[in-house]
Amino acid sequence: xxxxxxxDSIAFKLALTFVVSVVIQSLLMTAxxxxxxxxxxxxxxxYQIFSEKVKNRAVTIEGEMKNVWTNFELYTDExxxxxxxxxxxxxxxxxxxxxxxxAAAPTVxxxxxxxxxxxxxxxxxxxxxxxxxxxxxxxxxANPNRVDERNSNTYLLAGPWDVAQExxxxxxxxxxxxxxxxxxxxxxxxxxxxxxxxxxxxKLLGYWCPPFRLYDGGEEVVTYSIPLVDQxxxxxxxxxxxxxxxxxxxxxxxxxxxxxxxYGYVVGIHTGENGEIRPLVTHGALQKxxxxxxxxxxxxxxxxxxxxxxxENHNGNEVIYACLKQMGMYYNNTPxxxxxxxxIGLMDEDALLRYPRRIQEILVYSFLISLCAGAGIAVxxxxxxxxxxxxxxxxxxxxxVYEMGSKGNxxxxxxxxxxxxxxSKEQERAFCxxxxxxxxxxxxxxxxxxEDENVFCLERPEGKRWIRLTFREDDGKKSxxxxxxxxxxxxxxxxxxxxxxxxxTRVLNRKAFERRQQKWDGMLRLGKPLAVLMFDLNCLKxxxxxxxxxxxxxxxxxxxRAISGALRDAWIYRIGGDEFAAVLEGMPExxxxxxxxxxxxxxxxxxxxNGFEAGIAWGYAISAPDSAEAFGDLLSRADHNMYEMxxxxxxxDKS
Length: 655
Description:
By secondary structure, the chain is α+β, with helices and mostly antiparallel strands. Helices cover 44% and strands 24% of the residues.
């Protein structure tokens, strides 16, 4: 850019005012940079990164709660069938409760291991007995991620002594023959039990109980419990699981937010009273020091769109920010849906706004320099403006600003803009002289949006880079901010990819499958050929019942590897416990048949090697070139063909 162009720049216009008053010029320069959105945009970026971290962690912990820890429907159904056959007196009360608990103990233990929780319990209705004790089974597991045949990590907290002997489980030091509940801890039993009949399905009456101690000196736990009825609809008691706070916080690492001295995560609850949110689950001495017990959190909105607030009532002189993300613990219009749980991330202001403050420090230095330079800056403003841009580069803040005036055809930009946009020297010179060419260049970039708003991908010789473009128009002047967000985008993509993986098989999960269906619909509308394959494992329940769920999980993992190995060009998804789907483009039908038979043969051989029957029923559907078929219809055809094969396999087995 030549001297004449520089003389018409924003910096020179500010310099004319500086001649009249150095102080006024400096203030205008600072105001201009602020209006350009550099500080505000960097602050917004910090809020967005904070929000994404908390959101991703909330999705992770909610997934564990809803898909792993509370996945015991199989066991409640088993208990319901069992209690339907139990003897009752003329008042309908269960008889021989001790014998019933002994018989139910293996099912409760299996639920404990399957859900990978720190405890599982079955509490029976005590009838007319009002002594505060309940006939119950209450097992705890010291290491949920490790299960062995000797139950070495498991102990009995409450229940008949014979249960401990028969299951080879040791009793805890606080063991009781019956479970003693008090006003301080009985909510996890009474709330779900008292809700029987409020919904047609007892599974909708599940209750997440806030932290409590089962006995003095015991460990703090949260529980999820549902009312238990037999198949005739008669009340039996309550069945559920517990998660200790120490185990829960293994899924909430404070290093997510800050590497050291992190305040970490808090779980809060809103019960519909005055819109207040109070801390529900806290962990560690640092949180207990700054938070005022269970008092409601006083929150001042900073960025409501991203859920960012300033925590006003805390013990300390620091300025602390809180990011709130609601977790869907209950379905709408269920008895406890008014209890809304939130994951709350806490960060110190100095750590959260580190980069915006670095920009502010640069502005202060620039202000001082302009004061010292005096009238000389009026002549040499272009050099000063260049030096300011270099300060931004040295500060490692990847931000550039440009402006297009309403008069003339020139574009004014900081030194960072050409570097961030990957402009050659020829492009830079051409764009500075012609607004239309520069706007056409930006429009071409915007034709390739990403999942994040205003973020676009640039193909560079050294690799892909992601930038955020922010546009502004005021009084005919168009300006914008260009920011390199490559590191932030790569981290976000990595978190999204991890959330899309099935935890057991490491293939893609059902959530990823459902999200991509819109993309496949678009491909079908464009006439691209797609093939959808459905797979269903045979005899999984029998393997689980005979050999245990660990062997069943190995069976599922091997099947996933066999399908992935046979269909190397396809995305594989686990869409159910024993169901898989695959979607691929342009593969001939005979190749599909060959790959399916290959994977099925490998699975069958695996079952024979391990002493059980195994196999895969499969079916597929291929779109016609000129068909207007939607992806859902294609999926239904594949699913139908798979179940037809499964029927044939069952009929062959019977014959």
